[in-house]
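User: I'm preparing a small set of examples for a lab meeting where we compare how different chains pack in three dimensions. I only have the primary sequence for this one, and I'd like the structure in token form so I can line it up with the others. Please keep the answer compact; I'll paste it straight into my notes.
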Amino acid sequence: MEIVCVLGSPRPKGNSTTIAERFCKKAENMGARVRYFSLNELNYRGCQGCFTCKTKSDRCVLDDDLTQVLEAIMETDILVMATSVYFGSVSGQLKCLVDRTFSFMVPDFRTNPNPSRLAPGKKAVFITAQGAPEDMFRDLHTSYENYFKRYGFHESHHIRGCQIRELGDIEARPDLMELAEKTAEKLVG
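Assistant: Understood. Below is the structure token output for the 189-residue chain.
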């Protein structure tokens, strides 16, 4: 089983990264192969709105460090996306990747009952860490649930850490670390 773990936090040891690493470590212990991509360490641009992926190519035509990430997502069984929540949304680093996944959509995506170029059966894990309380930004998970469905992910799981602001705050939340491990067991086992 192949897992691609996309780390959207600009902080290398951030709370969302720590949760994702716990999920991936458990999955690796169960025999999965994990490829990590820390978006903050890559050089790339956001979607240019050129629509070449709909008219002349079936892939994004930009050639930068996101090319390898997009290719890995196309080949993976499980996609893990981890991000800190800034100003009510995902990090800018992750948002640029999400915009570039527009290339995964077929040219007639608006009317096609199968709008995605991704192979069916993929699974997703969406991990967020926010300093705000639980009653804020719930809609972010609803939005990404719809994103995963539109792209044909067979199932998606969400791990949402609230009121974890400072580096290392996650260490005081064994419930989230346990949820990460249980989610890995469910998806890999």
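A couple of notes for your slides: The longest strand covers residues 78-86. Residues 2-188 form a domain with the Rossmann fold fold (CATH 3.40.50.360).

User: Perfect, thanks.
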